[in-house]
Amino acid sequence: MWFFETLYPDLKIGVKGDIIHEEKTPFQDMKIYHTSRYGKVLTLDGVIQTTQKDEFIYHEMLTHPLLLSHPKPQNVLIIGAGDGGILREVLKHKVKKVTLVEIDQAVIEVSKKHLATINKGSFNDKRAKIVVGDGAKFVKNTKEKFDVIVVDSTDPIGPAKVLFSENFYLDIYRILTKNGLMIRQTGSATLQLTTLKNSTKTLKKVFPIVRTQIIAVPTYIGGFFSLTIGSKTIDTAKVTQKAINQRYAKLKLKTKYYNPDIHFACTKLPNYIGEELR
Amino acid sequence: MWFFETLYPDLKIGVKGDIIHEEKTPFQDMKIYHTSRYGKVLTLDGVIQTTQKDEFIYHEMLTHPLLLSHPKPQNVLIIGAGDGGILREVLKHKVKKVTLVEIDQAVIEVSKKHLATINKGSFNDKRAKIVVGDGAKFVKNTKEKFDVIVVDSTDPIGPAKVLFSENFYLDIYRILTKNGLMIRQTGSATLQLTTLKNSTKTLKKVFPIVRTQIIAVPTYIGGFFSLTIGSKTIDTAKVTQKAINQRYAKLKLKTKYYNPDIHFACTKLPNYIGEELR
């Protein structure tokens, strides 16, 4: 059986597979397919979110560049990411506490059941605190401060739209510590260039340092996929190579995509992307 | 109307468009579609070869890294690439002669007619010599020597298989000048990893320096796409940044993807690719 992603009206990717879970949650239409190419694939509202085979790319690149650029990240906040992949990567660092705020409990439950290779028991780590709730409300109301905040939301259509707003980023800024950094996905650098441009513009209003990372994820069609960092003082692209090498080695990090060379290489943009973001 | 690429049995990309040319040549089944997303799209045997919208990525990255790493490239050979895109980019350099050997005259003709934005009159440049013939035979028989050779073949299934063989690379080595370099496409670094691994192994038998570049092309699905360089003396990743900056500036190169930062960044491999090629 073929299933096709329906993200774009004139473009689609099809993967052969069988549907093994289907659920209308209060927030979205959730499906899990089993494919021989990518293992299990999670879709929300018809859009591929993660696959067992290539999830490591997105999850590593949303975490290690920030956590290794910060000299001592201790308190981390994750918005979204109910599959647990980000949490797994953050917990590889010497953090004291990681709070994950996911709006849709069903995503957590189905991920625990079907995507255990992604969350790998991270929900049970003593440092992890799982909150089922609205990420925008959480950042508005929390009294805590965080060193690193990872926003792993769906695209700015539907429920996640608020997570792309200036007010949301102002709240994020407020709850970051002095040298804090945040990162979020900002879509395909070609197919969703408007998302990337608008996000960059909005983030630049709030953060003195904004840095774009480009990565290639097989199941996110459209060439480079973008992740954008907003930071108070630390520019991940200007930390010394030596510091990154040392921290990476000291943690004995086992990564499949990230390495200290990629740390810097992923911030070098082709002209056609760089020129759009100036 | 949707058309779907048929390169993989369990995976496909679909683009909405209209067919505007269809031809069975003596070598392959050739089609041109018009799409609003990617402009005109050329397919050979059902596989997307190039599109007006994103062709610059592949064409720039198969040429400038070599032509700027070589101190004085004068004589260049292109195998395949009947659409003229590689030729266009090579002619931006101070070369004396560029020979293009394309096996299928129909590809040249249809590209002149439908893909003029790609070849941009380069077939009429006085420095260009167009040969309709078999690339493998050409490299076996030519008495000329070349500074740079670009092999732009289809995948190693069907007629292009010989262009992935050790004997072919031995001929290439023989007809390269003392500091000569060659480059070829070696497929998606995930979906065609076997092609990349085998090509790397074969090239290492022939060339003292083998270097992998990774690029992201929206219409080549599967994450990073790989280009592999075989070289006698020059490592494109170890040329000085200063030399590349100077040569790029001196030529006043107008590029949409390539720039001196990308020159080096594209040689930094994620662990899951790098480890496979060691």
Describe this structure in words.
Two copies of one chain form a homodimer. Helices cover 31% and strands 31% of the residues of chain A. The first copy, chain A, is of the alpha/beta class and 278 residues long. The radius of gyration of chain A is 18 Å and the shape is globular. In chain A, a hairpin with a 2-residue loop joins β4 and β5. Chain A contains eleven helices and twelve strands. In chain A, the strands form two sheets. Chain A has a seven-stranded mixed β-sheet with strand order 8-7-6-9-10-12-11. In chain A, strands 1-2-3-4-5 form a five-stranded antiparallel β-sheet. In chain A, α7 packs across α8. The first copy, chain A, has two domains: 2-49, Spermidine synthase, tetramerisation domain (Spermidine Synthase, Chain: A, domain 2, Roll); 55-277, Vaccinia Virus protein VP39 (Rossmann fold, 3-Layer(aba) Sandwich). Chain A binds chain B through residues 2, 4, 8-16, 35-37, 54, 56-57, 188, 190-191, 214, 216-218, 221-224, 255-259, 261-262, 264-266, 268-272, 274, and chain B through 2, 4, 8-16, 35-37, 54, 56-57, 188, 190-191, 214, 216-218, 221-224, 255-259, 261-262, 264-266, 268-272, 274. β2 of chain A pairs antiparallel with β2 (11-24) of chain B.
